[in-house]
Amino acid sequence: MADIDHPIIELRRVSKAFGRQKVLDDLDLKVQRGKTTVIIGRSGTGKSVLLRHIVGLLRPDRGEVYFDGQRIDNLSERALVPIRRRISCVFQLNALFDSMSVLENVAFPMTENRSGPMDRRKINDLAHKCLEIVGLSGFGHKRPGELSGGEKKRVAIARAIALDPPPDVILYDEPTAGLDPQRSDAINKLIRQMQNQFNVTGVVVTHDMKCTAEVGDRVLMLWNGKFIADGTPDEILQAKDPHVRRFVLGQAEPADLVTFTA
């Protein structure tokens, strides 16, 4: 892959445990610039934990995390600020402020994270533009409680790109969770639009195989703290590993099946 020797994100032998539960086990990962990398796996396998390491919300027990060639897992919170300005997150539950309008929600990161002078009019103009990009022009006055699940997700994506300049990376945590198939399809197309329009690097964690196939340039499957598959969506769909096959086909693991006896 092009630029794989100069990844924008790199994890080197990262391990993380909570108590006696090892979530990440000596994990290596290189994320290519301008592409969308999808991490699949069962619920509770550590996909979201991996995302939190990328943005510095969690520190590894062992190993190193790099962003654009700079090691970040050993930085102070203050030193992480300029790194986090280059990374946006779309959370599973959207994390919108109910007390704010949609426009205020989108403008929030610009208001909080501006490193230089940026007047209110410019912030509002950019927030309106971001809403227009995600197909929500005219929704700025509404409150999150007035929106559908798909509309809330689009507001979260508008907020993720509402930086000047736009972010280098967007982390998507289960972006289609709880959405019907049509709204999920709209979100998948929006993720691709962010990549194509802004050359944003995407990292998506999901257990939605349709989302995986539509947005992923590269797909990895996390199992017991390690990656057990790595390839294009088509290669993952054809994988022979039994855990990968069962996940792709939506089949239960034998250990999850309960046998009833008379």
Describe this structure in words.
The chain has 262 residues and is α/β, with parallel strands linked by helices. 35% of the residues lie in helices and 23% in strands. It has helices at residues 47-54, 77-84, 102-113, 120-133, 149-161, 181-198, 209-215, 233-237, 242-249; strands spanning 9-18, 21-31, 36-40, 62-67, 70-71, 87-90, 169-173, 201-206, 218-223, 226-231. α6 links the parallel β7 and β8. The longest helix has 18 residues, at 181-198. The mean pLDDT is 90.
CATH third-level topology of the domain at 1-86 and 209-251? Rossmann fold
**What is the beta-strand fraction?**
15-25%
Please identify, by name, the CATH architecture of the domain at 1-86 and 209-251: 3-Layer(aba) Sandwich
> Ends: how far apart?
56 Å
CATH homologous superfamily name of the domain at 1-86 and 209-251?
Answer: P-loop containing nucleotide triphosphate hydrolases
Indicate the mean pLDDT. 90
CATH class of the domain at 1-86 and 209-251: Alpha Beta
**Side-by-side strand order of the widest sheet:** 6-7-8-3-9-10
> Using only CA atoms, what is the Rg?
19 Å
Number of strands: 10
Number of helices: 9
Low-confidence stretches: none
The succession of helices and strands, N to C, reads EEEHEEHEHHHEHEHEEHH
Structural class: alpha/beta
Shape descriptor reads globular
Helix content: 25-40%
Main sheet overview: 6 strands, mixed
Question: Would you spell out the secondary-structure blueprint of this structure?
Answer:
Elements: E1 9-18, E2 21-31, E3 36-40, H1 47-54, E4 62-67, E5 70-71, H2 77-84, E6 87-90, H3 102-113, H4 120-133, H5 149-161, E7 169-173, H6 181-198, E8 201-206, H7 209-215, E9 218-223, E10 226-231, H8 233-237, H9 242-249
Parallel strand pairs: 3-8, 3-9, 6-7, 7-8
Antiparallel strand pairs: 1-2, 1-4, 4-5, 9-10
Helix pairs in contact: 3-4, 3-5, 4-5, 5-6
